[in-house]
Design goal:
By secondary structure, this protein is of the alpha/beta class. The protein has three domains: about 10-125, Translation factors (Elongation Factor Tu (Ef-tu), domain 3); about 135-265, Rossmann fold; about 270-315. About 20% of the residues lie in helices and about 30% in strands. The chain contains six helices and 17 strands. The protein has helices at about 35-40, 105-110, 145-160, 195-200, 220-230, 245-260; strands spanning about 10-20, 25-35, 50, 80-85, 85-90, 95-100, 120-125, 135-145, 165-170, 190, 205-210, 215, 240-245, 265, 285, 295-300, 305. Strands 8, 9, 10, 11, 12, 13, 14 and 17 form an eight-stranded mixed sheet that branches. Strands 4-3-7-1-2-6-5 form a seven-stranded antiparallel sheet. A two-stranded antiparallel ribbon has the order 15-16. α5 runs parallel beside α6. The protein is globular and about 55 Å long. It starts with 8 loop residues before the first strand and ends in an 8-residue tail after the last strand. The model has no long low-confidence stretch (mean pLDDT about 90). Bound molecules: flavin-adenine dinucleotide (FAD) and FE2/S2 (inorganic) cluster. FE2/S2 (inorganic) cluster binds next to loops.
């Protein structure tokens, strides 16, 4: 399936709610009306939006993590890219859910937004995940902050490809860092309906944490590899891996998929200034088929989702 690009624009979003979930993540619900409702109704999983926080104030000092207090004082002139974890389009309004980590000046400012506030956004931007013909099984591989676009994809696959089976593989450094809600510390090393955000679409999940505090002890790429080794009657041609998370994890997942001849799409992250292909700050080194040459593509415009075979991952 190829996806028709949606028309992007600058749209104001109303904040419906914004709260902390777990140790590391915040969840914010946004509402778009008018042109924004139409544009984001066609938002495709893997696309992103840029948020302007230049007019958003800092939260009270004691709400800012101590290690970020100095860094946060600087003004934030550039918009920041975020994916959606969920999008719901109604008649004349579209609501969307963001999941974000507090890492620096922009994301700290996001935590000060409350119901009734508004923010300026540009989107939908970039190219999202696609579903090639004849795929019957989707393996959704998430590492930490990579959860939002994969959650959005899970909902999309259930709605548009109800016959397709899917399993989520979710990794984080420990149970508290899993970007989901639920009884996450009770998760075992098997494959079951552990993560409500996937289970609601009939998608079971396997979980891995580096310290073994939930699920398999180790990296989620190892758990994926182990699961693939256990499968007997299945077709690699009918399988596809979709992944988003830290780049070393994406490199490992891409390698596992390539070794087994499984198609794989990865959502890449780069620091972005403009988000619309003008500043060249988001280069991704890509292979040229049939050649030793490499070219640089733009994460914001050619991606953020790429065929994993294209990417020249760093060492
Ligand atoms: C397409 C795309 C989608 C994204 N979706 C989400 C999302 O759904 N939820 C979410 O929490 N974050 C997401 N991000 C990352 C988010 O944009 C950054 O966390 C945010 O810009 C940080 O801004 P800041 O001012 O708070 O911190 P900064 O001061 O800009 O950064 C703080 C720290 O985080 C690192 N960092 C910042 N941005 C990135 C990045 N893109 N890749 C790797 N390291 C980075 C910096 O090196 C620095 O160490 C996405 C990024 C991209 C490119
Ligand atoms: S962010 Fe400016 S070209 Fe990609």
């Amino acid at each position: 399936m190829s996806h028709t690009p949606t028309k992007k624009g600058i749209f104001t979003a109303g904040v419906l709610s914004n709260r902390r979930i777990g140790e590391c993540f915040w969840k914010m619900e946004l509402e778009f009306t008018g042109g924004g409702a139409k544009a984001f109704a066609r938002f495709h999983p893997g696309q992103f939006l840029q948020i302007d926080v230049s007019e958003v104030g800092l939260p009270p000092e004691d709400h800012i993590p101590a290690h970020l207090r100095d860094a946060c004082r600087r003004n934030v002139l550039l918009r920041r890219p975020f994916s959606f974890a969920d999008v719901t389009a109604e008649m004349d309004r579209t609501t969307a859910e963001l999941l974000y980590c507090v890492l620096g000046p922009a994301s700290v400012r996001l935590t000060s937004l409350t119901t009734g506030d508004s923010v300026s956004t540009i989107g939908p931007l970039g190219n999202g995940f696609s579903v090639p013909r004849h795929k019957q099984l989707a393996l959704l591989v998430v590492g930490g902050m990579g959860a939002p676009p994969i959650r959005c994809l899970a909902k999309y696959l259930r709605a548009e490809y109800p016959e397709m089976k899917a399993i989520a593989f979710v990794g984080a450094k420990n149970a508290a860092a899993l970007p989901f809600e639920g009884h996450l510390d009770e998760i075992s090393a098997g494959v079951d309906s552990f993560i409500p955000a996937f289970a609601r679409f009939g998608i079971p999940s396997a979980v891995a944490t580096n310290d073994g505090s939930a699920g398999y002890r180790g990296f989620i790429s190892e758990r994926l590899s182990q699961w693939l080794d256990e499968q007997k009657d299945w077709s690699t041609k009918e399988t596809i891996v979709y992944s988003c998370g830290p780049e070393p994890m994406l490199a490992a997942v891409a390698h596992i998929a390539e070794q087994r001849g499984i198609d794989c799409q990865v959502s890449m992250e780069r620091r972005m200034a403009c988000g619309i292909g003008l500043c060249q700050s988001c280069a991704v080194e890509c292979r040229v088929e049939g050649s030793q040459e490499a070219v640089y593509k733009l994460c914001c415009q050619d991606g953020p989702v790429f065929d994993a075979r294209e990417i020249v991952f760093g060492e």
